[in-house]
Amino acid sequence: TGPFTVAIDGPAAAGKGTISRAVAAEFGFAHLDTGLLYRAVGAATLAGEEAVAAARALDPAGFDEALLRTGPVAQAASRVAAMPEVRAALVDFQRAFARRHGGAVLDGRDIGTVICPEAEVKLFVTASDEVRARRRFLELSGKGHDVTEAGVLEDLRARDARDAGRDAAPLRPADDAVTLDTTRMDIGSAVAEAVARVAARR
Ligand code: C5P
After folding, report:
1. Which pairing describes strands 121-126 and 103-108: parallel, antiparallel, or unpaired?
2. pLDDT of residue 92 exceeding 70
3. Boundaries of each Cytidylate kinase domain copy (predicted)?
4. Helices first, then strands: H and E counts in the chain
5. pLDDT tens digits along 46-61
6. Whose CA is nearest to atom 12 of ligand 1?
């Protein structure tokens, strides 16, 4: 049997990361958070580099996650993510990741639509703006970041609008994706639902 791919897409702070890590741990799959690739390119532009050159030179082994998880880097990521040449430079790495592991979970915005349209399981994880802002606010303030809930909500909305409104691989569920709305779900139930969907195809 060939590689088994789980595609997990959705807007910012919907729970994709937690669900992806849990599914990967449950089935012994490798996990790639593709948002980190765009964040790394965004961070490089904040440091003065040109976006497309930075995307072509990207070295995922050298990522500093703490730096990449900040608000300004998230906004810069969504700006470079609208550039077709940046997206094109990152496609091969993502597809190769899915191919070289017996099982892989990739999470992002366009995994089920563009990167791995043949994925065995496609989930679109979402939640209301307010719930996502609340979760991201608690996460960031818990790490000592100086943020307000209103500021986080505004940032998420700006990023989602840019991600869904762009021409290149816009944020949207694949036709064959199962939507998991976690607005009224605790994270344990969301994980259980995702694990059950994967188990059913495994
Ligand atoms: O998932 P995360 O919030 O880390 O993603 C940061 C940004 O990277 C997103 O707002 C989006 O613009 C971009 N992105 C993307 N396609 C992906 C993953 C992330 O365009 N597959």
Report:
1. unpaired
2. yes
3. 6-48, 67-197
4. 9, 5
5. 999 999 999 999 998 8
6. 78
Exposure string over 84-119, b if 16+ CB within 10 A, otherwise e = eebbebbeeebeebbeebebbbbbbbbbbbbbbeeb
Q: Shortest CA distance to 41 belongs to which of 85, 7, 98, 107?
A: 85
pTM beyond 0.90: the answer is: yes
Question: Please, are residues 115 and 7 in contact by the beta-carbon 8 Å criterion?
Answer: yes
C-alpha of residue 89 to centroid of ligand 1, in Å? 15
Q: Is 70 annotated as a binding residue?
A: no
Cα angle at 78 between 73 and 84, to 5 degrees? 130
First to last CA, the chain: 11
Amino acid at 108: G
188 annotated to a ligand binding site: no
- The rounded distance, in Å, linking the Cα atoms of 1 and 59 is 30
pLDDT of residue 1: 62
Residues lining ligand 1, Cβ inside 6 A: 12, 34-35, 38-39, 74, 77-78, 81, 108-111, 159, 163
For tokens 């608690």, the residue is: 138
Backbone angles phi, psi at 45, to 5 degrees: -70, -35
